[in-house]
Amino acid sequence: MKNVLTIAGSDCSGGAGIQADLKTFAAHGVYGMSVIVSVVAENTCRVISIKDIPPKSIADQIDAVFEDIRVDGVKIGMLSNKEQMKTVADKLLQYRPRGVVLDPVMVAKGGCALMHPEALETLKKEMLPRAFLITPNIPEAEALTGMKIETAEEMKQAAALLLKMGTQNVLIKGGHLSGDAVDILYDGKEFSAFTAERIQTKNTHGTGCTLSSAIAANLANGMGTADAVKAAKEYVTTAIRHALPIGKGHGPTNHF
Ligand code: PLP
């Protein structure tokens, strides 16, 4: 069995963050481990508060995992501030795990910032070069590149810019554009498009977390990058189709 680690924030309502990641890992038959960087008091409607875990505790959690257990893949989600990013980046340099999938989480669906805006430059300089694959949505790709992205062609231009920042592969998720949900993968040589029909539902809490975790699990299980993305996209599409009407707001994706 492969062992996959998530480094991310905790969503007490169980739909996003660490909780979505661990459910996704279990559904993919990999052993899930977690380093918690922030405790987010949130539900399907709103974020109440965010308690950032101090960098020393994050470093200790990462050491605890790596000094004892073989790590076959890593997913990184919410990183709240510069200090957390520097800590995680240093540990990635120290342990050099394979298959790091970085979801550059910035804002929750309800509009609450999960990353301090002044950490953007640190995210670019310290985290992007440590990632095998990054999975920004359109607003995140716009923030990282400074571009306005409204077409598939602009998604490709943004992916090329992001690759120059040091990551090995870029998957820009097109769900924020209208029509089918088309994601573009760029590996520095070719572009691949992954299309899924748009599902009409308000229950989409945790979709980004689920997709990036599924990719990390698929990579750890030995799939090539494009196959890992294709299978993960199919997984998240099914998870949205069967999303649970839990809570009063955006219900969570469902894991099989
Ligand atoms: N809460 C945490 C802890 C997260 O890591 C994320 C990740 O994107 C979210 C919330 C976002 O949730 P939503 O899918 O509702 O935007």
Automatic annotation (TrEMBL):
Keywords assigned: Kinase, Thiamine biosynthesis, Transferase
GO MF, one example: hydroxymethylpyrimidine kinase activity
Enzyme class: transferase
EC annotation from Swiss-Prot or TrEMBL: 2.7.1.49, 2.7.4.7
Taxonomic superkingdom: Bacteria
Catalytic activity: 4-amino-5-hydroxymethyl-2-methylpyrimidine + ATP = 4-amino-2-methyl-5-(phosphooxymethyl)pyrimidine + ADP + H(+); 4-amino-2-methyl-5-(phosphooxymethyl)pyrimidine + ATP = 4-amino-2-methyl-5-(diphosphooxymethyl)pyrimidine + ADP
Signal peptide: none
Every Pyridoxamine kinase/Phosphomethylpyrimidine kinase domain range: 11-254
Pathway it works in: Cofactor biosynthesis; thiamine diphosphate biosynthesis; 4-amino-2-methyl-5-diphosphomethylpyrimidine from 5-amino-1-(5-phospho-D-ribosyl)imidazole: step 2/3; Cofactor biosynthesis; thiamine diphosphate biosynthesis; 4-amino-2-methyl-5-diphosphomethylpyrimidine from 5-amino-1-(5-phospho-D-ribosyl)imidazole: step 3/3
PANTHER family registered for this protein in UniProt: HYDROXYMETHYLPYRIMIDINE_PHOSPHOMETHYLPYRIMIDINE KINASE THI20-RELATED (PTHR20858:SF17), PHOSPHOMETHYLPYRIMIDINE KINASE (PTHR20858)
Protein name listed in UniProt: Hydroxymethylpyrimidine/phosphomethylpyrimidine kinase
Organism: Caproiciproducens galactitolivorans
Name of the encoding gene: thiD
